[in-house]
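Project standup — Tuesday

K.O.: blocked on the structure for the chain from last sprint. Re-posting the sequence here as requested.
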Amino acid sequence: MEVNKYQSTFNSTTVEELLSISDDKYTHPLLPFKAATFTKRVPFGREMKLAHFLIDPTWTFLNHGAFGAVLREVLDTSHKWQTYVETQPLRAIDRDLLPLLVSVIRKVAKFVSANPLNVVLVPNATTATTAVLKSFPFQPGDGILYLSIVYAAVLKQISEVAKLKSLVVYEREIQFPVTNNEYIIKLVETALKECPNLKLAVFDHISSGSAVLLPVKQLIDICHKSGVKVLIDGAHALGNIPINLTDMDPDFYTSNAHKWFCGAKGSAFLFVKKEFQSAIHPLVISHGYTRGFQAEFAWIGSKDYSALIALNTAIDFWEYYGADNIREYIHGLNRKAATMLVNTWGTQRIAAPELFRSMSVVIAPLHKICTSDDGEKLQDWLHHEKKIECSVKEARGILAVRISTHVHNDMEDYVKLADAVMEYCKQSTVT
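H.V.: unblocked you, prediction finished:
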């Protein structure tokens, strides 16, 4: 595409043109400053934590699934962009920003096997699911299907949209322990037959609280056969598991980059099938409105876009260390750690081992009826007394511990957790 060398490139009419250029003719723009590069490999585990993360080494950090943990190099790129913007704001925002955002979109789309024209950048998955639910062309009386393991914020979105648009909501409860995918598939198949006028189903790719990996491709297929569109909340997916959106074929899909991908806070993507792009709008209406899906999401006003620009460096990290290598380590460590906890505590996982990836949920060895307050007490005790950050939740009177594993963790972290929880239980401080 020819552009006047003196013209501002922040022209919303050029977004789709930049994304439409074939890979063999497209050249990624360079960052306007020297960004960190990865030139020396370090082993996964404690050395990785010290080399690439800012996590305080005196802490045992086992809750990566909450808000993630940014790479040092990614945060450095983010800060450098912020500084660069202020050296000449008009140059940075009006001329440099859009081509760089397009470059990031193209890279992210490639990582998840999607057409870049169907991908936009958003601050987080919550923003994306809200935009889809508020924009979806519902009619009064239409139905939305979700499972009981839906993320709490998404459930609030569904409830609010249902109230605003006079929709019918259908929940199907997941009973634990879950032993196989067939149980979830049959649950949804039954719901599709029983729930009238369904228009949209909302599923997690990996549930937040229970950490279960859902068979989303199969769920999408059976929903499509019933004429039901599907929104996948993949908040925990990017980096954690391979994503192939072309093969998966969702109507809408979102994932955070600040969790398992180790991006900066405020980075995520939203995928929308072309047939719905004219209907889906961002929550903030700005200059790109009515000028196309990409244009509307590219600019949502003056804000800090540094987290999105820094995805360049996050992608470099994944390419340098190898996505398959990273996943092999964190998934293997998770299986080993969860098995050790089960054996040490004499309990069990809440689902079959094959349904977990880099998070697992193991029942704590508290042989009494517990409340949510008990869960908070244990989590607080681990935090304040042992400097262990780990999620503890209560469900039906049972406390369960959700562990996260990433490249900055090793088995020593989980041995500390196992011993600490046993100590807590022996003290019988839960009332």
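K.O.: great, moving the ticket to review. Residues 323-427 form a domain with the Aspartate Aminotransferase, domain 1 fold (CATH 3.90.1150.10). The first strand starts at residue 60 and ends at 61.
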